[in-house]
Amino acid sequence: MSDDRSSLNNDQHKSWFERFLQAFNDEPRSRADIIQLLETAVQSDVIDRDAFTIVEGALEVSEVQARDIMIPPSQMVVIKSEDDPKTSIRKVIDSSHSRFPVVGEDSDEILGVLLAKDLLPLLFKDGDITNEDILARLRPANFIPESKRLNVLLNDFRTKRYHMALVLDEYGSVSGLVTIEDVLEQIVGEIEDETDKLEHEGIQVTSDAGVYLVPALCTIEDFNEFFKADLNEEEFDTVGGILVQQFGHVPLRDETISFDHFDFRVVKSDGRRVKTIQVSKSVTEETID
Questions:
Q1: Where are the domains of the chain?
Q2: What is the pLDDT of residues 265-283, one digit of tens each?
Q3: Which intervals hold domain CBS (predicted)?
């Protein structure tokens, strides 16, 4: 009897890590085996769901490429070298970002990266701020191919001490940008601070006629009201929910689908949930109208 109590006490005093290691007695031979064992560990209260999500994200990040998470050019906030300095500073303030690609005559001519904090000394400058003052404070830009895997990129961010990379397509044109925060979000989930806009802030009009950006958390009721549409509200509450149902899986960036007279393209997704969707009326529908 005393031996049984001693064994029970020993189990209770084992650290969560020791109990976690016991789950690997079957020697997993693949990533899927590890995920399955982790699921078992969650169900047995060896680790919590948050820890599972982080480990799962860390395992999967090596399979994700920069093209899968990059911010497309249409959503990049860039500083144009010929803009009036006041216009550039106002853009920095309004966006609340910390780093900005600076472009020359066209969007593929990257002159460097401007850090918002590097503008602070200019506040104490005698006289007006000039374009030359801003250009003199540019940091070198870092370029990566679309195919770069995120685990390699994260290591580059850490060892080479930079936080933003411009993504180039096979022709050398800028196809997007990736920040260290984008990579970390693939591991730990969404990271929001006091300057981030909420994903349910509302439907945004883009510079392209008839094209809108819709947060996945937008309610179907709001979507129907805005677009004068008639999406079914009975089974799902949000546009993201009905989109996943239509795809049959959680879609990745740039996956497209059309239904109910609308074309949908996923703009942002971390593979676990859809975040932002591009919406436009189907061409056939516009022709009928």
A1: 2-47, 67-188, 204-288
A2: 988 876 667 888 999 998 7
A3: 70-129, 137-194
Does residue 288 carry a pLDDT above 70?
no
CATH of domain 67-188: 3.10.580.10
Residue 270 tokens read as: 């971390």
* Ordered DSSP codes for the chain: -HHHHHHHHHHHHS-HHHHHHHTTTT---SHHHHHHHHHHHHHTTSS-HHHHHHHHHHHHGGG-BHHHHPBPGGG---EETTS-HHHHHHHHHHH--SEEEEE-SSTT-EEEEEEGGGGGGGGG-SS---HHHHHTTPBPP-EEETT-BHHHHHHHHHHHT--EEEEE-TTS-EEEEEEHHHHHHHHH-----TTSPPTTS--EE-SSTTEEEEETT-BHHHHHHHHT-----SS-SBHHHHHHHHHTS-PPTT-EEEETTEEEEEEEE-SSSEEEEEEEE-HHHHHH-
User: Quick one: pLDDT at residue 23?
Assistant: 55
Query: What is the number of other CB atoms lying within 10 angstroms of the CB of residue 286?
Result: 11
pLDDT at 286: 46
Give the count of beta carbons closer than 10 Å to the beta carbon of residue 155.
11
State the greatest distance between any 2 C-alpha atoms of the chain, in Å, as a whole number.
87
The pLDDT of residue 12 is above 70: no
**Cβ neighbours around 269 below 10 Å, total:** 23
Q: For position 36, what pLDDT does the model report?
A: 83
Nearest Cα residue to 224 out of 197, 248, 242: 242
Q: Using the predicted structure, report yes or no on whether residue 6 has a pLDDT greater than 60.
A: no
Q: Does domain 204-288 sit in CATH 3.30.465.10?
A: yes
Distance separating alpha carbons of residues 218 and 55, to the nearest angstrom: 29
